[in-house]
Amino acid sequence: MLPTSLRVVVVVAMLSVVVAPGDRGAAEPGHDAGLEPHWLSDIVSRSDQAGAEAFEMRVVVAADEEFVRARGPGWASEARAVVMGAADLMGQVDLALTVTRVTRWESPPGRLPDLVGDAVSQVGLPPDALLVALTSQSSNGSPTYDGWASASRPVIVIKVTDPYRPTLPSLVAHEIGHMLGLDEHGSDHRGDDDGCLMVGTGYRNGERWCPEDEEAVARALASLP
Ligand SMILES: [Zn+2]
Ligand SMILES: [Zn+2]
């Protein structure tokens, strides 16, 4: 018989895998909630463009062979567009996205979490940008994920079955939210989080950041030199 508190944790962890196999769901060991990730100053700078958002995140996009095959000659601009689809949502927290490079990678069969290492070893970890690896593999193993944000490196893997899927911008923004240090809402979340991008089960329809998340991002960005 488990103590009640532990049982709750077990149930929550199972739910996030079984009911909401959307992305990195369960608690991540070693992640200190409320502290900005150590890579933030590498991938985000204060913007020097007048009239633009105050901060800029650089992104390297890598498309796998299935993405390239499915999209054809326009694959590079479509890969860029997958990331830039989240531009408006990121603008809500004063962050502009700049794609600095579009490249390719070859995805082996596997779950999204397992593909992080493959993308990094092929593309290299950009010294000054977030790596967003796109995969259009039809099967990624079980459980399936829409997206995965590494807990230890500035790397995201996004599954793209349809680059024009209406929920894709929310997925990309949700994963970037993790990169900015945000965790998914737990049962202890206060206040109205309806429609928030960091709701674990509801980010697909997210269209805004809740006040807590906005404040957390602002605090993290304010710490940048
Ligand atoms: Zn998540
Ligand atoms: Zn929120």
Features:
single chain; 225 residues; alpha/beta; Collagenase (Catalytic Domain); six-stranded mixed β-sheet; 8 helices; 34% helix; 17% strand; globular; binds zinc ion
Walk me through this protein's architecture.
- The chain has 225 residues and is an alpha/beta fold.
- It has one domain (32-222): Collagenase (Catalytic Domain), CATH 3.40.390.
- It is 34% helix and 17% strand.
- The protein is built from eight helices and six strands.
- The protein has helices spanning 4-18, 40-43, 65-71, 75-84, 87-91, 112-123, 168-179, 211-222; strands spanning 44-46, 55-64, 95-105, 130-135, 147-149, 155-159.
- Strands 1, 2, 3, 4, 5 and 6 form a six-stranded mixed beta sheet that branches.
- α3 crosses α4.
- The chain is globular, with a radius of gyration of 17 Å.
- The relative contact order is 0.18.
- The model is unreliable at 4-21 and 24-33 (pLDDT under 50).
- The chain binds zinc ion (2 copies).
- The site of one zinc ion has 5 residues, from α7.
